[in-house]
C-alpha cells in the first residue's frame, strides 16, 4: 500500500539546524572581511556605515564588534569607536613561531596516518594551486593553499591540536594574500608542498615536520620584511 511505503531520502538534503541570529551573521561577515584583508589594519568600523551596507540595525553590529574585540581582531580607540587591530612585528614573530611548532607536529602525525585517500586529496589541492599559480589567480591560490594545510591538520587525528592551530589562524589569514601576491614566494610555496608530499609518500615523519616548519618560518620572514619596508601594517 502507498501509505506503508518508506519515503526515499532525497540526496543532498540535510537538517537545517538552528537559524543563526542577525548578530552572528554580522559577526561572520565582518570577521571574514578582516581575515581576508578586505578590511585592513587601521580601518575604522563606523556603525552607521556598516548598518547601511549590511542592511541591519546598529545593535547586532555593536554585538559583533564586541566579539571581534574579544577575538583580538579589532581594538577600541582612546576616544571613541573601533578600528581593525594591527599586528606588531613582535606578535608576528610569536604567532608564526607557535604555528611552526603546532603545524609541523600536525604534519608529523598526519604522515603516520597517511592513506591513499588522504594522499589523493593532497595531490588534488596541489594541482589546483599549480593551475591557479599559472593563471596568477591569487584568490584561487589562497583557497588551494588553505585546503592543503586544512587536510593535514585534520589528518593529524588530534582534535586538541586542530583547535590550537585554528586559534592562531585568524591572526595571520589577512597576511596570506600578501605572501601569495609575492610571485617568488608563491612558486616556492608550491615547491614546498610538493616536497612535503614526497616526504609523506616516503613515510619520513621527521623530514615532513622539518619541511613544514621551514615553510612557515619562511612566510614569517617575508611578512616581517614587508613590515620593515613600510609596505605592510
Note down, in words, how this protein is organized.
There is one protein chain. This protein is mainly alpha-helical. It folds into 2 domains: 22-84, Winged helix-like DNA-binding domain superfamily/Winged helix DNA-binding domain (Arc Repressor Mutant, subunit A, Orthogonal Bundle), CATH 1.10.10.10; 89-228, Four Helix Bundle (Hemerythrin (Met), subunit A) (Up-down Bundle). The chain is 70% helix and 3% strand. The protein contains 9 helices and 3 strands; from the N terminus they run H-E-H-H-E-E-H-H-H-H-H-H. Strands 1-3-2 form a 3-stranded antiparallel sheet. Helix 8 runs antiparallel to helix 9. The protein is globular, with a radius of gyration of 21 Å.
Short descriptors:
233 residues; mainly alpha; Arc Repressor Mutant, subunit A; Four Helix Bundle (Hemerythrin (Met), subunit A); 3-stranded antiparallel sheet; 9 helices; 70% helix; 3% strand; disordered N terminus
